[in-house]
Design brief:
The protein is α+β, with helices and mostly antiparallel strands and 605 residues long. The protein folds into three domains: 2-345, Glycosidases (TIM Barrel, Alpha-Beta Barrel); 371-375 and 510-597, Jelly Rolls (Sandwich), CATH 2.60.120.260; 381-500, Jelly Rolls (Sandwich), CATH 2.60.120.260. Helices cover 18% and strands 27% of the residues. Helix 5 (145-162) runs parallel beside helix 6. The two termini are 39 Å apart.
């Protein structure tokens, strides 16, 4: 009898499609159910992050969400991409949240917005802007007034964007999340209530929700009275019961159901078995629960936005956010997608048929590209900032990229060099000679400088920031050298510091020539012709460690330790005619050819 009741309850839940643009709807929280226009409504969502996908592909990815049998799309909003400098907003192009939401509505999807201010999501600093770290003693995700003031400005800006896109104003936005998995981090209730107040002030009237692990302490610290309770994940009766013990009188749903998982550099590609996903999804469907698949399509950590974790050591995330998701990094349906689609087809409103999938995106094979121009980083240094001791890149107004520290050696000229702390990957040179690396992923902090004749004079330390920690108690994760450098316990003073953001302005001023590289840290440039454009992956297996730009678009980092050896290059980054590729490699002196592949990586699932 109990099983029959569950099945009946699942069948009784209505799945409704969004109304036409401009049609006002009413979405509320019942005691157990979400209510759309007064009737029970089950959210069946897939999460994609619009800032991880070229804008030209938003419609393609959203159409595939709809074709899978889902009725809602969820997306994080990454604050640091929207406000790269305090008060300087970039809401255009790939950051145009309003355009993404309208595209979802046009394709018949409801929308859940997860704007943070903290998101996590394997994204640098969990989406918080790096300029917060220019304040030496700032605390984040709490009631620090300086942090709260920045949060209020951000929330009010997001409110401007989505206010008229709320469901009761004719838009598709059903709910907005307050913070993210706060119960895994802290217990500042005043902070959560302050954020709620900011959303009220911003004119957000749709229901709010929180998302936390299904444990008593996380749910107590991370949930808010009156807000729906999301579980990350919620896939069985016990997990849902933990939330229901709070007796909040609001719906509980699975805010993150994991069909895949993240991958760090040096690991094997993460994989989640399709049968395990179908088991958990089946339980949610059979028990009438609302859910969101995280991720349904992961996309790419273009630029320097990939984040990191920390357990016993620092663990930076790969550039690809493929996530072993139903749609792969390039947006192609996988066998997992089709299995989920088949399962969801049985839970559509009576008489409704799933939409057809859109036509596949074109892929192209690019012949090997020769990079015949080079430029040494050391021949292209910007003016130095004089510093008594080295500081993190944030203290010089820099958010991402690399930074070079240079000092004259006086007193000790050789011995044990110790950096406290180097974050995250450093190359050490003495008088222009490359000596070796200090790698945070290996918990390295020191390197021996051999004595030389004549005595060594100049020390260079080139540091790459590989992504700020995005989860856990170590969120304050400044880049570069964060404290001091010692040689045989003597603190080295009087530094020249060269910030190296490797942004558009920096690349434009590079002076290339034909001279062979004579020490590590070089830019290499090549050009290639295309008759037509399409998606491809650039094979970097002949290189060591660095960054790739195509026509000015930063494709992200590569590293020979893997598992990622190819970088996704979508068609919108290419053009018919002449294209330019620039590779900055920390170790290679002689460039290898770069070719495009149509058998896109990660390989089959």
């Amino acid at each position: 009898m109990r099983g029959f009741a569950k099945t009946f309850a699942a069948l009784a839940v209505l799945v409704l499609a969004p109304g036409l643009a401009g049609q006002r709807n009413d979405f509320r929280l019942g005691e157990k159910d979400f209510l759309l226009n007064g009737r029970p409504f089950r959210i069946m969502a897939g999460e994609i992050h619009y800032q991880r996908i070229p804008r030209e592909y938003w419609a393609d990815r959203l159409a595939k969400v709809k074709a899978a049998g889902l009725n809602t799309v969820g997306t994080y909003v990454f604050w640091n991409a929207l406000e790269p400098e305090p008060g300087q907003w970039d809401l255009s192009g790939g950051n145009d949240l309003a355009a993404f939401i309208r595209t979802a509505q046009r394709l018949g999807l409801w929308v859940i917005v997860r704007p943070g201010p903290y998101a996590c999501a394997e994204w640098d600093f969990g989406g918080l802007p790096a300029w917060l770290l220019r304040t030496p003693d700032i605390k984040v995700r709490c009631s620090d007034p300086r942090y709260l003031a920045a949060c209020e400005s951000y929330v009010l800006k997001i409110g401007e964007i989505i206010r008229d896109l709320q469901v009761h104003r004719g838009g598709p936005v059903l709910m907005v999340q307050v913070e993210n998995e706060y119960g895994s981090f802290g217990n500042d209730r005043d902070y959560l209530f302050a954020l709620k107040g900011f959303w009220d002030k911003a004119g957000i009237e749709v229901p709010l929700f929180t998302a936390d692990g299904a444990t008593p302490h996380m749910l107590e610290a991370g949930s808010l009275p009156g807000a729906a309770i999301g579980l990350d994940p919620g896939t069985n009766e016990k997990q849902f019961a933990e939330a229901e013990r709070l007796e909040r009188g609001v719906p509980v749903f699975c805010s993150e159901l994991y069909p895949g998982w993240l991958t760090h550099w040096g690991e094997e590609w993460a994989r989640v078995k399709t049968e395990d996903v179908l088991r958990d999804l089946g339980w949610l469907l059979d028990n009438g629960k609302s859910f969101s698949l995280y991720m349904f399509h992961g996309g790419t950590n273009f630029g320097f936005f990939a984040g990191a974790n920390f357990s016993d050591r620092y663990q930076p995330d790969v550039t690809s956010y493929d996530y072993d998701a139903p749609l792969d990094e390039a947006g192609r349906p996988t066998p997992k997608y089709h299995a989920i689609r088949d399962r969801l087809a049985r839970h559509q409103p009576k008489g409704e048929k799933l939409p057809d999938l859109p036509e596949p995106v074109r892929v192209i094979r690019i012949p090997p590209i020769t990079l015949d121009e080079s430029a040494s980083l050391f021949d292209n240094l910007p003016p130095a900032v004089r510093s008594p001791q080295p500081g993190p890149m944030e203290s010089y107004g820099q958010s991402y990229g690399f930074i070079l520290y240079r000092a004259k050696l006086l007193g000790h000229r050789g011995g044990k060099l110790t950096v406290t702390d180097l974050q995250d990957y450093g190359l050490v040179y003495v008088d222009g000679r490359y000596l070796g690396t200090i790698d945070r992923t290996k918990n390295e902090t020191s390197l021996d400088i051999p004595k030389a004749a004549p005595a060594s004079e100049t020390l260079d330390i080139l540091v790459e920031g590989m992504g700020r920690i995005n989860y856990g108690p170590r969120l304050i994760d400044r880049k570069g050298i964060t404290d001091r450098v010692t040689l045989n316990a003597m603190t080295l003073m009087a530094w020249d510091v060269h910030p190296l953001p490797l942004d558009e302005d920096f690349l434009r001023l590079l002076r290339f020539g034909g001279r062979p590289a004579d020490r590590p840290a070089n830019f290499f440039r090549g050009r290639f012709e295309l008759g037509t454009t399409g998606d491809t992956y650039l094979d970097m297996s002949g290189w060591k460690k660095g960054v790739v730009w195509v026509n000015g678009h930063n494709l992200g980092r590569y590293w020979a330790i893997g598992p990622q050896k190819r970088l996704y290059c979508p068609a919108p980054f290419l053009k018919a005619g002449t294209n330019e590729i620039i590779v900055f490699d920390l170790h290679v002196l002689k460039p290898a050819p770069v070719a495009g592949f149509v058998d896109l990586e990660p390989a089959s699932k």
